């Protein structure tokens, strides 16, 4: 439907009429339905003899947009263009202001006289207004209604909509003109000229010639010749809308147009312009051509629009590149510690330098591997942090112990560097220099152990003990331990000695215990911040500085993503007895990570953690004669050896009355002294667990509750080993092996008494002793006897001699996108990103390669926090385009190709598309989507799903081929249309809607509950729980159960991928109503939580599928023997003849 020029209108059904009204009219609205989707009203005025549209007001699904010249208001607030929110996009091209809505409306306004409105066919028979009723019959119900004829004037006046206090006069007469007989036949000439030859076949031209001639007569009187240009332009637009290609009809003296920069005016060109940031935009354009200013087609070089410096059109080779907000012209480069990149015509080409690996234990439980996989382990034992598994040149042990009242409060107690099976302890030892190791303390907070074979240990003491290991690249692919295997592949960091990849961090870490007597740690789901409101507020405030874009740490955000550090900071600060120490330790970890990237954060301690800057020995006082030893904190809890030495009085500094010198040489009162336990300092407030005692430190002395464990009576077959009765140098119970620790050497610092197995037997983990060869294999904390088989992905593994022997098939990679923008890439990197544009999810058109497929997705929001409620997905395959949206799939054919390269089937809740090239797409018709790709595509794809090369560190590769840290920079680069606005913040809906938080946490706790217990040891639930809480907080305007159910279903789906089937739905939690499909009195349909294998269907009568997809939950029919085939469109069982 359209209106143009001198009050001309064309209805949806094709009538053309003239109506010179100057009031506010309903242009088109949605009527005859219980809910009005849209209502568009317009008002015209006459300026300098020419009619022009002064105001358009649109109500689209409750959002009010008001368009006037140069100003766009949404819900009465002025907005900047381009605008994209709650399903409405508004953008401006060289000529048109374009408003698009997800419900199926596109409105083009040239900010002057003409509007073109395109409406989805679903609104047929449901419209009112000047545009008519869209029933497909011209004149009926517009000009002939109930057998009464109406004139254009009467019809137009019926659509008037006055304001509350306005009374606008109806138009009563159409102006008449006396046309001279001998006037110009320019209308006829132009509209039937060669430029419109193709159009004359598509759009009937006679009405337009007549409109043009009327305008020409009128312009004789009103001296306004622009009217005829409007009609020519309208005919051109109608032609393009019908799929034609009008040629340039404008000439320098007929209706000429000027363009900015070096652009050219063209009558028909793709509205999706190629730009520097997205040079392949026009290949995937779905809209018809429009008139406007475009980049000239180059003779040799294709020119694209430079949207980086907005300087018009340039050849693609001259495009600049962007890297964290800085622009680099083509040919320039930047270098970082691990890579150098050069800009080459808008694309980065990067060389990796071999870089040392870093592994760390921070906050007593957060471990980050050499391959940057991060996990938490609340250990209570000595573990192998890292060792050279090939030549055993070094082993690093860490001792993690419980140091608080809860199980999750663990601290790093000692670090041991063991070379050639010798011993070096990392304690607060002084300077030490041996042949292989140099130890020194650059500051009171740190000690560094530097070896000559490529290992450097940095141990932090203040405010908490943390350790950082730097490893030379020569050790790539030969390390093992808690730090992983240093091969740049994150997904196999949990590979254990027995040769299988564990599913959870706890299962993995428990295999690296060095003592059999240590407990196996259980997974823990409690959130320490839920225990204390004050601690949570404190943590939110101070840890919030890390992610604050204007805070003291902001300068480093582009290089080191603060979100993981923020999560760890929240956990530690809430969890610790000394919140400030843990907070400062967590903040200093981030500062250190930045320093490692070469960014020095100066002055961050001015507002937070200032107390460590002033803790220097100011409190000492001078005395002439000091004849006794220094009163130290150590002397409070154990005798001080230096006090037995008599010495001549000296002068110097000492601690004055009643204060004692602590480790850092500062004088403190007794209540701030650490206690000493077996020679190691235990800070004030920390707790020690030992032999049934729970001790904490008060006034410099240990205070214990609980009775000491009596000398244990060993259960048969074990015997008691007592160190006191044995010769020195023998190892005791600390070296007793169990099946789990058989592959560990024994690292013994002193003999420990305890129960041991007689004559070389080993512990079986359940209190018995067995010979070594009978040990079971362990996977995800479950034990398997020799000869048993399990499935790991698409491989089967057999237990032989405590090791798993697995087949080496290449499995399909999976990328999951679920809920409100949660992504899990093919290489298992997880992130959240929610923008309001269309994004390329995965494509194999990367760099210069020409590809075969592309998947584009767009979030369709609901909820005023902009939460996603469904997705629309477009799949481009060869010459087909599949559009998935509103719970069904539609196909657009774009070329001449007879073989259909895909199959579509419905499995339970999911719609599954399988292509012949090896792409499988599973969509639950709402917000969850799983994409599986065959291993042939490894390393050849790009998009939000990463590059599928096994290394998740480089998954944030932007469209211009640079690897970035910032999620927003990565996500925004994959926008399909460069005119769509960037997403500029990652929102935290639980802080925006605090009233939803407790409901969300309560509902989502099902993920951590016993319902899913069988899966906890296979798939870590923590990330899924976090995503569930975020989504449930965000869905605040309806759809809240959907958001919650989708998030839980995503975890259930991950479980069924590893073969754990969980029936979690119940009548009160996310029920599925399968009985809906049963005919009355029948009972074929049932809910299956883990799906069915391939069914015999009408589309696939053989019942064999390309890929057997496990576990797609939903409603499935059990088809009876007389009707064995399932008809997917009618959703019922039929016999073959009925197909």
From TrEMBL:
An annotated GO BP: cholesterol homeostasis
Sample GO molecular function, one term: virion binding
Superkingdom as given in the UniProt entry: Eukaryota
CDD domains: TIL (cd19941)
Boundaries of every VWFD domain copy: 1-169, 357-519, 813-981
Record-linked Pfam families: C8, TIL, TIL_OTOGL_Mucin, VWD
Keyword terms of this UniProt record: Disulfide bond, Glycoprotein, Repeat, Secreted, Signal
Cross-referenced InterPro entries: Mucin_vWF_Thrombospondin_sf, Ser_inhib-like_sf, TIL_dom, TIL_OTOGL_Mucin, VWF/SSPO/ZAN-like_Cys-rich_dom, VWF_dom, VWF_type-D
Gene Ontology cellular component terms for the protein in this record: extracellular matrix; extracellular space
Subcellular location: Secreted
Family annotation (SUPFAM superfamilies): FnI-like domain, Serine protease inhibitors
Function: Ovomucin, the glycoprotein responsible for the gel properties of egg white, is composed for 2 subunits, alpha-ovomucin/MUC5B and beta-ovomucin/MUC6.
Subunit text: Homomultimer; disulfide-linked. The N- and C-terminus mediate their assembly into higher order structures to form filaments. The CTCK domains of two polypeptides associate in the endoplasmic reticulum to generate intermolecularly disulfide-bonded dimers. These dimers progress to the Golgi apparatus, which is a more acidic environment than the endoplasmic reticulum. Under acidic conditions, the N-termini form non-covalent intermolecular interactions that juxtapose assemblies from different CTCK-linked dimers to produce long, disulfide-linked polymers that remain highly compact until secretion.
Name recorded for this polypeptide: MUC5A protein
Upper lineage: Eukaryota, Metazoa, Chordata, Craniata, Vertebrata
């Amino acid at each position: 439907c359209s209106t143009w020029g001198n009050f001309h209108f064309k209805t949806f059904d094709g009538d053309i009429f003239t109506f010179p009204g100057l009031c506010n009219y309903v242009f088109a609205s949605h009527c005859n339905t219980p809910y009005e989707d849209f209502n568009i009203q317009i008002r015209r005025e006459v300026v300098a003899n020419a009619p022009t549209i002064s105001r358009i007001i649109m109500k689209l699904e409750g959002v009010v947009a008001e368009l006037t010249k140069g100003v766009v208001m949404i819900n009465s607030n002025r907005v900047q263009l381009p605008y994209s929110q709650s399903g409405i996009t508004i953008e401006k091209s060289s000529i048109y202001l374009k408003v698009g809505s997800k419900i199926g409306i596109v409105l083009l306004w040239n900010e002057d006289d003409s509007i073109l409105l395109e409406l989805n066919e679903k609104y047929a028979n449901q419209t009112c207004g000047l545009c008519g009723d869209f029933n497909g019959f011209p004149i009926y119900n517009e000009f002939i209604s109930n057998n009464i004829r109406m004139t254009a004037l009467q019809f137009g006046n019926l659509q008037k909509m006055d304001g509350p206090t306005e009374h606008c006069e109806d138009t009563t007469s159409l102006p008449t003109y006396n046309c001279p007989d001998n006037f110009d036949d320019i209308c006829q000439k132009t509209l039937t000229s060669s430029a419109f030859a193709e159009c004359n076949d598509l759009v009937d031209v006679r009405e337009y010639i007549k409109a043009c001639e009327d305008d020409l007569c009128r312009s004789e009187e009103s001296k306004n010749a622009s009217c005829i240009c409007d009609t020519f332009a309208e005919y051109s637009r109608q032609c393009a809308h019908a799929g034609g290609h009008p040629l340039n009809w404008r000439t320098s003296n007929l209706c000429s147009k000027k363009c900015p920069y070096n652009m050219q005016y063209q009558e028909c060109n793709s509205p999706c312009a190629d730009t520097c940031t997205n040079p392949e935009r026009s290949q995937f354009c779905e809209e018809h051509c429009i008139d406007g200013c475009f980049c000239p087609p180059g003779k040799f070089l294709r020119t694209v629009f430079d949207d980086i410096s907005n300087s018009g059109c340039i050849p693609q080779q001259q495009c600049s590149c962007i890297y964290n907000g800085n622009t680099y012209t083509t040919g320039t480069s930047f270098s970082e510690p691990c890579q150098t990149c050069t800009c080459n015509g808008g694309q980065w080409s990067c060389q990796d330098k071999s870089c040392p690996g870093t592994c760390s234990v921070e906050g007593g439980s957060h471990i980050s591997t050499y391959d940057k996989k991060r996990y938490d382990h609340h250990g209570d034992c000595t573990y192998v942090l890292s060792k050279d598994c090939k030549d055993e040149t070094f082993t690093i042990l860490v001792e993690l112990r419980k140091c608080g009242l809860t199980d999750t409060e663990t601290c790093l107690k000692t670090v041991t560097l063991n070379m050639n099976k010798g011993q070096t302890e990392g304690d607060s030892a002084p300077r030490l220099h041996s042949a292989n190791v140099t130890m020194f303390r650059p500051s009171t907070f740190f000690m560094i152990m530097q070896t000559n074979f490529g290992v450097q240990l940095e141990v932090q003491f203040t405010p908490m003990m943390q350790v950082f290991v730097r490893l030379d690249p020569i050790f790539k692919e030969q390390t093992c331990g808690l730090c992983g295997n240093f091969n740049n592949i994150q997904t196999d960091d949990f590979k254990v000695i027995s040769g299988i990849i564990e599913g959870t961090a706890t299962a993995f870490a428990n295999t690296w215990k060095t003592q059999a007597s240590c407990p196996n740690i259980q997974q823990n789901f409690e959130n320490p911040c839920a225990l204390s409101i004050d601690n949570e507020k404190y943590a939110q405030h101070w840890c919030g500085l890390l992610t604050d874009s204007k805070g003291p740490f902001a300068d480093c955000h582009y290089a080191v993503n603060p979100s993981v550090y923020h999560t760890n900071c929240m956990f530690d600060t809430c969890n610790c007895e000394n919140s400030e120490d843990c907070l400062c330790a967590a903040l200093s970890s981030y500062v250190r990570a930045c320093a490692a990237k070469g960014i020095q954060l100066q002055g961050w301690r001015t507002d937070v953690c200032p107390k460590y800057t002033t803790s220097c020995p100011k409190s000492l006082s001078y005395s002439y004669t000091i004849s006794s030893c220094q009163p130290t904190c150590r002397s409070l809890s154990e005798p001080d050896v230096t006090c037995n030495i008599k010495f001549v009085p000296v002068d110097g500094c000492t601690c004055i009355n009643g204060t004692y010198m602590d480790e850092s040489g500062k004088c403190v009162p007794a209540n701030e002294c650490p206690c000493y336990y077996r020679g190691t300092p235990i800070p004030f407030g920390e707790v020690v667990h030992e032999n049934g005692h729970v001790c904490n430190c008060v006034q410099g002395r240990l205070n214990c509750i609980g009775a000491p464990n009596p000398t244990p009576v060993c259960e048969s077959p074990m015997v008691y080993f007592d160190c006191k009765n044995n010769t020195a140098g023998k190892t005791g119970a600390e070296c007793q092996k169990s099946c789990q620790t058989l592959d560990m050497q024994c690292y013994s610092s002193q003999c420990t008494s305890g129960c041991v197995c007689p004559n070389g037997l080993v512990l079986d983990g359940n209190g018995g002793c067995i010979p070594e060869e009978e040990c079971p294999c362990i996977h995800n904390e479950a034990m398997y006897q020799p000869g048993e088989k399990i499935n790991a992905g698409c491989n089967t593994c057999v237990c032989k001699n405590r090791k798993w022997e697995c087949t080496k098939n290449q499995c399909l990679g999976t990328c999951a996108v679920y809920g409100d923008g949660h992504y899990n890439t093919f290489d298992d990197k997880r992130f959240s990103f929610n923008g309001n544009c269309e994004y390329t999810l995965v494509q194999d058109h990367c760099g210069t390669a020409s590809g075969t497929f592309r998947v584009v997705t767009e979030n369709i929001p609901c909820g005023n926090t902009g939460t996603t409620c469904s997705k629309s997905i477009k799949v481009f395959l060869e010459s087909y385009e599949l559009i998935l949206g509103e719970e069904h799939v539609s196909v657009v054919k774009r070329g001449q190709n007879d073989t259909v390269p895909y199959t579509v089937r419905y499995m339970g809740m999911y719609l599954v598309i399988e292509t012949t090239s090896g792409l499988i797409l599973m969509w639950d018709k709402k917000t969850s989507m799983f994409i599986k790709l065959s291993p042939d595509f490894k390393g050849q794809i790009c998009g939000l799903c990463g590059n599928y090369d096994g290394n998740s560190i480089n998954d944030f590769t932007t469209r211009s081929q640079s690897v970035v840290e910032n999620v927003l920079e990565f996500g925004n680069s994959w926008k399909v249309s460069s005119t769509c606005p960037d997403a500029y913040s990652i929102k935290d809906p639980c802080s925006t809607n605090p009233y939803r938080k407790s409901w969300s946490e309560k509902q989502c706790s099902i993920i951590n509950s016993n319902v899913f217990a069988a899966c906890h040891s296979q798939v870590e639930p923590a990330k899924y729980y976090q995503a569930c809480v975020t989504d449930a907080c965000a869905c605040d305007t309806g759809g809240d159960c959907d958001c919650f159910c989708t998030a839980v279903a995503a975890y259930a789906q991950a479980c069924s991928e590893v073969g754990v089937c969980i029936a979690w739905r119940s009548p009160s939690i996310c029920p599925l109503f399968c009985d809906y499909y049963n005919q009355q009195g029948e009972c074929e349909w049932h809910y299956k939580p883990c799906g069915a294998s391939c069914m015999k269907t009408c589309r696939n009568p053989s019942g064999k599928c390309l890929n057997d997809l496990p576990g797609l939950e939903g409603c499935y029919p059990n088809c009876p023997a007389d009707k064995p085939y399932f008809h997917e469109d009618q959703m019922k069982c039929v016999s073959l003849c009925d197909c």
